[in-house]
Amino acid sequence: MMDEYKSLQKYFNKTKKQQPKKNSFFSMILNHILISGVLLLVCLCIMKIEPDFKTWIDKQVYHTNFSFAKINETYEKYFGSIFPLSTIDTDGTKPVFDEKLVYQSKEPYKEGVKLVVSQNYLVPVLESGIVVFIGNKDNYGKTIIVQQVNGIDLWYVGVENNNLKIYDYIEKGSLLGETISNEIYLFYQKAGEFLNYQDYLE
């Protein structure tokens, strides 16, 4: 029995020696860098040969929006919230704010519309979506951009909210924020192009 064990041990030792050595971490990194470099060179060559390819890449990267909001809506419909902790009600109460947009007058402004509302007006979310921008836009001012589930980005200009964060999912009719003055500016955009507000604003 002892001889058999020794022979098995010798067999296993022999097979281990015959197995090729695994690539080291360094060689894996080097392979990735080489492959990335080759792909980059191929892309650069294609862009130089075919100018339309460069235009297509530019459009896909800088002007086409990935519909995070639509994916989130679909996921929640079938699987529940992506962020389950956000649905936990710690004190047994939830703020209720289910309003529609009310304004006194509207008129075209730049690529969108200017709405006159009451002072310190609480602005409702016009369509469910994900907050993709909060901050100041050149030539517009304080802006909140919501990527709506219908694939349209809606810019709310002149609205302030200190509680919202980037990538928050907000429901239609919920509170977006408070107006800075008695005016709101809305801009509808899709794939980098501004849309006619009359097709979307009631």
Describe the structure.
There is one protein chain. The chain is α+β, with helices and mostly antiparallel strands. The chain is built from four helices and eleven strands, in the order H-H-H-H-E-E-E-E-E-E-E-E-E-E-E. It has two domains: 2-63, no CATH class; 86-199, Distorted Sandwich (Glucose Permease (Domain IIA)), CATH 2.70.70. The strands form two sheets. Strands 1, 2, 4, 5, 6, 8, 10 and 11 form an eight-stranded antiparallel beta sheet that branches. A three-stranded antiparallel beta sheet has the order 3-9-7, with no helix packed on it. A hairpin with a 3-residue loop joins strand 4 (129-137) and strand 5 (141-148). Helix 2 (25-49) crosses helix 3. The protein is elongated and about 65 Å long.
Detail the topology: elements first, then pairings.
Elements: H1 2-18, H2 25-49, H3 51-63, H4 68-79, E1 105-109, E2 112-116, E3 122-124, E4 129-137, E5 141-148, E6 153-157, E7 159-160, E8 169-170, E9 175-179, E10 183-190, E11 193-194
Antiparallel strand pairs: 1-2, 2-10, 3-9, 4-5, 4-8, 5-6, 6-10, 7-9, 10-11
Helix pairs in contact: 2-3
